[in-house]
Amino acid sequence: MNIEDLILASSNAEHCQRNWDRTRTVPEDHVNALIEIATNMPTKANEAYYKLVVSTDPTINRKFYNVAIDPDNPNTINRNSQVDAPVVFTWFEVKPEGITEDTNRLGHYDPWLLNSRTAMGISSGAVALAANAMGYRTGYNQCFAADDIIDIMLEATGETDRLLFEKPHYQLGIGFPNTEHKWTTVLDDNGNVLKNISPHSKTIQTVLI
Q1: Do β-strands 185-187 and 193-196 pair in parallel, antiparallel, or remain unpaired?
Q2: What is the 8-class DSSP label of residue 70?
Q3: Tally of CB atoms within 10 A around 183
Q4: Helix axes 58-67, 146-157, angle to 10 degrees
Q5: Structural domain contains residue 206
Q6: In the chain, fewer beta carbons within 10 Å around the N or the C end?
Q7: Looking at the 3D structure of the chain, how many domains does it have?
Q8: Residue 31 sits in a domain of what CATH number?
Q9: Residue 110 in 3-state DSSP?
Q10: Contact 97, 47 (CB under 8 A)
Q11: pLDDT tens per residue, range 18-69
């Protein structure tokens, strides 16, 4: 991969893909590669600060989409179709055993939650970049109630202990885009347009010294 391709992948990763080509699937070896990339990324003191659940089940991913709403904001209904993707990664916060709220194993001040969220950001960013470099598109989602995600996880896994999936942090949908529409367009199952989401732009201040 040359530098231009890598920059293009990063530019594509910036966009939240909201529609998908349902005729194309993500091969298992690609899913496994993205899982390995996610879990290879560095964490503070190499601690396991998160749990990762990956779904390639369209029924489960549709359930993610159905609960990806803010009950206080009706505009979020039929909006967050990025998690109605062929593949959905979900990161969960984890406080490793032997670590307190504010100290590490050596007893030094080291807030675990900051470390956990930093680790998930690094992990998910690597997956988003890699997936886009592989020709896929991606979309993040944080619009959900934790209890809804936990319910879906328990039903999917057959587990009964809610603490196993206690703190979902965010999700990343991955798949091939529907090239007939811009990434901002939400479609129904028949290809009809439900919504067009206005994108936002950003300017990050950078200083090279």
Answers
A1: antiparallel
A2: B
A3: 18
A4: 160
A5: no
A6: C
A7: 1
A8: 3.40.109.10
A9: coil
A10: no
A11: 999 999 999 999 999 999 999 999 999 999 999 999 999 999 999 999 999 9
Q: Which of 3, 14, 127, 16 is nearest to 81 (CA)?
A: 16
Within a domain: 207: no
Q: Please indicate, yes or no, if residue 203 is contained in any of the structural domains.
A: no
* Residue among 121, 149, 183, 131 nearest 65 (CA): 149
Please check whether residue 208 lies inside any domain of the structure.
no
Could you read off the pLDDT of 151-203 as tens digits, one per residue? 999 999 999 999 999 899 999 999 999 999 999 999 999 999 999 999 999 99
Q: What is the pLDDT of residues 84-136, one digit of tens each?
A: 999 999 999 999 999 999 999 988 999 999 999 999 999 999 999 999 999 99
CA distance 167 to 202: 29
121-151 residues labelled b (16+ CB within 10 A) or e (exposed): eebbbbbbbbbbbeebbbbbbebbeeebbbe
